[in-house]
Amino acid sequence: GAVVSQHPSWVICKSGTSVKIECRSLDFQATTMFWYRQFPKQSLMLMATSNEGSKATYEQGVEKDKFLINHASLTLSTLTVTSAHPEDSSFYICSARQGFYTEAFFGQGTRLTVV
Amino acid sequence: AQSVTQLDSQVPVFEEAPVELRCNYSSSVSVYLFWYVQYPNQGLQLLLKYLSGSTLVKGINGFEAEFNKSQTSFHLRKPSVHISDTAEYFCAVSVEGAQKLVFGQGTRLTINP
């Protein structure tokens, strides 16, 4: 299957700083990329959907000013957690789809710990 | 709006026994259905998918699932499990023309020796 690479796989940052997570589709052009947050032993919570060259669509309750998403090209989307706080500590996962009638491919996830 | 229900949060099974993980969805339009597996601290890996055609879908690692439109179900099965199948399994649905996937709550499959 297609490969989605997410970087970094884990990061520890100080409270108040910003962290950027990258999501790349390595061998296909992703028309749509998704960002999820996953709490321990829970399902994936969709944060936002992004299409290349346009603003991301955020799910209800997700702060768009805190979780900045940029989808600069058909192979790269970034999530920036701004002014991170300990409650932002979580497992963040990206995924990409090539179109409506295909499966989504997932990155390896990023474990964010804010201290 | 569509939704997905995984009826069992945890399923313990002995090694080499058969297993069925249940998934039901609700949608008034055509759907595409997926099963993903997640190992600890990793992303999700696609096990199998139903887009159209045969209702019995075979996937990787010996898993299969059957799409049942009348019962709005897409249960995952494996005739004989291995220790390595221990993981979290997620059922997901995508409605025709929609971009995003909707995930079930997940089922933790534990294989006991």
Explain the layout of strands and helices.
The complex is a heterodimer of chains A (115) and B (113).
Chain A: E1 4-7, E2 10-13, E3 19-25, E4 32-38, E5 44-51, E6 57-58, E7 67-73, E8 76-81, E9 90-97, E10 105-106, E11 110-114
Chain B: E1 3-5, E2 10-14, E3 19-21, E4 24-26, E5 31-38, E6 44-50, E7 56-58, E8 64-68, E9 73-78, E10 87-95, E11 102-103, E12 107-112
Parallel strand pairs in B: 2-12
Antiparallel strand pairs in B: 1-4, 3-9, 5-6, 5-10, 7-8, 8-9, 10-11, 10-12
Structure commentary:
The complex is a heterodimer of chains A (115) and B (113). Chain A has 115 residues and is mostly beta strands. Chain A has no helices and eleven strands. Chain A has strands at residues 4-7, 10-13, 19-25, 32-38, 44-51, 57-58, 67-73, 76-81, 90-97, 105-106, 110-114. In chain A, strands 2, 4, 5, 6, 9, 10 and 11 form a seven-stranded mixed sheet that branches. Chain A has a four-stranded antiparallel sheet with strand order 1-3-8-7, with no helix packed on it. In chain A, a hairpin with a 7-residue loop joins β9 (90-97) and β10. Chain A is globular and about 40 Å long. The model of chain A has no long low-confidence stretch (mean pLDDT 92). Chain B is 0% helix and 53% strand. Chain B is built from no helices and twelve strands. Chain B has strands at 3-5, 10-14, 19-21, 24-26, 31-38, 44-50, 56-58, 64-68, 73-78, 87-95, 102-103, 107-112. In chain B, strands 2, 5, 6, 10, 11 and 12 form a six-stranded mixed sheet that branches. In chain B, β10 and β11 (102-103) form a beta hairpin. Chains A and B meet through β5, β9 and β10 of A and β5, β6 and β10 of B.
